[in-house]
């Protein structure tokens, strides 16, 4: 089982201070490449125009703290990288508590927790702290010190292309821009490298696989600005992977119209894997599915999560730590996505090769004595239903939906029926 | 607010004895034209063939009563014009109670009320009275006197055409043939003239407006027999307005298949305006939607009511008096229909002009600090959803349905996005 | 009423030992032909290849028993033809109880009943008995004697073709291969011959009727292998009739996609005839609909039952005897199928011949006084709805569904409206 290995990788990624650019991202890729050397890195210079956006200056941080008049550090980057507002400009000044106020970010409804807050596109500096910490601040002067740089540099992203028999692609995306939070988002990259290795090891791949690790929003937009044309021609289904390490539930965010092959595949798998899974409409989008499903982009992509971002209380706080995630949580995500990939790989239009029911008994596929109590083994019943519905007009996903059997249970039976030439793959336009 | 003005107009119309032809209709139009001089009147001669029907003789009434042997007037036209059976032929005779019986119309289930009863297409005479009144009649002779004329003349209807930028039309219809009943139907004409004035005052009209005031059934058929060809080419949506002055609920009668643009528009507006609105299928049709949606006519028309005809107890009785209607009731109808018109005027296929999400923050359309607690203002969220769904493939009504925001709240945001060129109007075939 | 006559015929068929081939089938046809001389018989030789199957050797039985050491007959074919495993090869040998074990068939969950068991396609012999009988067997030797023949011969089926005005066909199928069980399946053939006579007696038939009596599975496959091409061109709707003699409920097994004309017709009739009818998906198929709806065969056929096979406790046991069925049960099935046929015969696309509502009053079709309390007779309301919906775009079944009136109540009204030329039959492609 890969759950333990994914958890261990997430643990290793956890301490790094990542942002949408900078060396935290590069250190993250160094670790990922130890597990998945085939990741190819790209550096896109600051100032590059990407659709309606511009690649920002590169941000790096060495440290930072807020100190009182006695020099006590109220909050310090060393304690938690969440304490510094993401993309803070450097500062080194003394202010009164009143002046400091607008630079402090808290969560009044979760007074124990440090919020994760950023200001990528307007220059600010600030400290994030728990409401309790803030409440203890007494009038007086404070020393705000933030040692960051915001300079021309580049945005870093990673890509793995795993070729298959055809140029048609299955697309997986996750992001590598969040600092020390576990489910959101050390989990996505940890899952992704394990998926990459599983896909590489498949004995046969019909499809080519495109796996990307990008900073959220600006990274997805940057990636699309360089790859959209080819992706629109090739991608048949895609999954945005985020918050995939906890074990509370399973969730998906549907595509805009909820009708892509990715929607159908994930519904099909989840309804058998975890029938109580949660479906969120595109109105609840929030991660990079926002770009992949933007009007005109229209890639057939859904978002897959265990507990969906925005929906679990620890989201975007210091409580999204390593106790949020588990080997079991990872394993569940891994199982779902590998089942989706298997379903897509075998999602052909199958057709029985004879008219009327084939005589399954003479092939040993069903019993030869007929009696009311001869309850068919489930597999025999499944075989009867496959040949009873495989008319070349529905794909395997729809066949699975109609006969209410998971695709992963159908695949071995389909292979057997192809072998004895009772099934063939139909042309389909 | 126009509610008071509409109520005052209905009050003025109330006393007049109208029928499907005759001077009551003409007096009604005199009053309406004071408020809406642009109404153009048409007179269609008796005997004119209109599809399967013939314009009937013109009916006029000077008075009538039923008197007992002592000369006491049991019922008298002076007291209520409902007392005389609509389209009664003249009579002046003495009959026994037994002979009189077949000429008396009552409502046994509502014994206090005078029914509204007519016999347009078979010559009869009769009196309508409360069951209580009838129960008091003693054996003896009675004098039936009805002073009417039924002669060649004409059927009168009114029409307002308000031109717009295109020849495509929005159609509104109401009727002017009911005697002294308030909701059904002094309310429809009172609303209609106020709508006409609102439409005239619009700074811009994409559509041309066709508003008609006709006697029910025969008038709608007559109108269609003279205008159907052009209406089939031009009308994109229409609303039959009846029983629009009370304030108990909101109702619609769907088109035959429930799928016209008029259905979609009225559903969209009512689901936000009054979520508990009542939807009646075309099986419950009863007003002029019967003609507009007849097979082969097939105009995209629905019927709008507050309390639907046939469904409120005062319907077609003397209790449908001025206490049934109110300024508030009228205002609600006015608001709904003007919202429908606004929705239709702006019902384009909008499309975002950039790939991926536009950077709304740099345009001041959403906040530039991102934190879990930064709850977006509703308008910012609506803007994100507009640009997240505006793919040029759905019209504004469907966009509104998908993002669950009323069209009238979307229109100002759409205008702003058109201004900053983040949206454009897509071609749509 | 035909219920009694159908019951009497089923009673006459009941004692015969039928199987998928042999003289029991031929004796059954002798009886059926007394009621329906137009049945034409076909004999298909053993060894004939029919799609994936081969017509088996012909099986005949003279008798058989299982005796203990004292010569007492434990079970005997004379007592019930269910005692001998269907298609048993001959045997005459003495065995120990232990050796006998694998040749005994019982129903442990219904210990009083003899199961109906067969082994058509693998040579076996065996006895079927109640679990109670088996439990009484003491250790010792037993004499197994089965006097059957399994030799080259033929498979027998019957067909009735009743010509109509067009070559388009309505198809009815039932089976004649079950030994002494009443509902499954003396009922189907008994119903079928009465339907044949009713169809023959129709004053007018638009459609040609194809009625077949076949052994289940192999017979349906054999029939299709000889007739599929013409049936695919001609059959517009078909019904497989089985278990049609009890009176517990009404059931249907839908076609694969549930959308054929046969599905629509049977739903339409049953929803009015017996609103609590049961609908089973094609996943619950089990009778010859398995062949008629097999992928590539795709005939528009559903299965009709009272209590569905597999779903009533007496199914495939000795308890499916004459007490299971009744004249009332048969009558219900007869009424449903004749209603379906009538619905199909009149299932045209009707269109009103005038624009706007026709003036029904002048034709005496609705009252000429209009008042709130003038409740229309149901027929008048139905007529208004027919002309309000008959747009030439929906067939009579959909019209019936939309206006919620059974087709059999609509047909006389449709005829009247055709007579007065307010309706016509529209061309429809």
Tell me what the structure shows.
Three copies of one chain form a homotrimer. The model of chain A has no long low-confidence stretch (mean pLDDT 96). Chain A starts with a helix and ends with a strand. An eight-stranded mixed beta sheet of chain A has the order 1-10-12-11-13-16-14-15, with helices on both faces. A four-stranded antiparallel beta sheet of chain A has the order 5-4-9-6. By secondary structure, chain A is of the alpha/beta class. Chain A is built from twelve helices and 18 strands. In chain A, helix 1 packs across helix 5 and helix 10 packs across helix 12 (407-419). Chains in contact: A-B, A-C, B-C. At the B-C interface, helix 6 of B face helix 10 of C.
Name the overall outline of chain A: elongated
Give the chain pair forming the largest contact, with residue counts.
B-C, 38 and 26 residues
Mean pLDDT of chain A, rounded to whole units?
96
Sequence of strands across the biggest β-sheet of chain A: 1-10-12-11-13-16-14-15
H/E element order of chain A = HHEEEEEEHEEHEEEHEHEEHEHEHEHHHE
Discrete helix count of chain A: 12
Radius of gyration of chain A: 25 Å
Strand content of chain A: 15-25%
Number of strands of chain A: 18
Distance between the termini of chain A: 39 Å
Percentage of residues in helical conformation of chain A:
25-40%
Largest sheet of chain A: 8 strands, mixed
Going by helix content, strand content and strand pairing, the class of chain A is: alpha/beta
Low-pLDDT segments, ≥5 res of chain A: none
- The oligomeric state of the chains shown is homotrimer
């Amino acid at each position: 089982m890969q759950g333990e290995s994914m958890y261990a990788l997430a643990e290793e990624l956890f301490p790094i201070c990542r942002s949408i650019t900078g060396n935290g991202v590069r250190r993250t890729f160094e670790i990922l490449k130890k597990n998945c050397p085939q990741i190819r890195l790209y550096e896109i210079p600051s100032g590059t125009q990407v659709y309606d956006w511009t690649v920002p200056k590169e941000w790096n941080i060495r440290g930072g703290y807020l100190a009182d008049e006695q020099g006590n550090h109220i909050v310090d980057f060393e304690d938690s990288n969440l304490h510094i507002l993401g993309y803070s400009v450097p500062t080194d000044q003394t202010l009164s508590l009143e002046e400091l106020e607008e630079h402090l970010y808290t969560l009044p409804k979760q007074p124990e927790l440090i919020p994760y807050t950023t200001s990528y596109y307007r220059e600010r500096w600030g400290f994030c702290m728990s409401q309790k910490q803030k409440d203890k601040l007494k009038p007086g002067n404070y020393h705000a010190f933030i040692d960051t740089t915001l300079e021309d540099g580049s945005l870093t992203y990673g890509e793995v292309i795993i070729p298959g028999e055809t140029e048609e692609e299955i697309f997986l995306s996750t992001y590598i821009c969040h600092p020390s939070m576990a489910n959101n988002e050390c989990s996505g990259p940890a899952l992704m490298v394990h998926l990459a290795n599983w896909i590489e090891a498949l004995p046969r791949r019909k499809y080519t696989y495109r796996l990307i690790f990008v900073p959220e929003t600006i990274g997805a937009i940057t990636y699309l600005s360089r790859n959209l044309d080819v992706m629109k021609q090739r991608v048949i289904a895609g999954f945005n992977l985020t918050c995939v390490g906890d074990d509370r539930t399973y969730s998906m965010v549907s595509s805009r119209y909820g009708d892509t092959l990715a929607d159908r595949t994930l519904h099909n798998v989840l309804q058998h894997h975890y029938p109580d899974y949660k479906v969120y409409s595109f109105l609840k989008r929030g991660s990079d599915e926002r770009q992949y499903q933007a009007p005109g982009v229209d890639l057939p992509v859904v978002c897959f999560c265990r507990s969906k971002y925005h929906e679990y209380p620890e989201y975007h706080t210091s409580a999204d730590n390593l106790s949020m995630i588990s080997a079991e949580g990872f394993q569940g995500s891994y199982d779902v996505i590998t089942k989706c990939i298997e379903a897509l790989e075998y999602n052909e239009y199958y057709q029985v090769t004879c008219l009327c029911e084939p005589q399954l008994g003479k092939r040993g596929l069903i019993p030869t004595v007929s009696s009311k109590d001869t309850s068919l083994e489930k597999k025999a019943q499944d075989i009867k239903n496959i040949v009873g519905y495989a008319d070349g007009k529905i794909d395997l996903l729809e066949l699975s939906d109609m006969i209410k059997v998971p695709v992963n249970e159908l695949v071995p039976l389909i292979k057997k029926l192809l072998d004895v030439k009772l099934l063939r793959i139909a042309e389909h336009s």
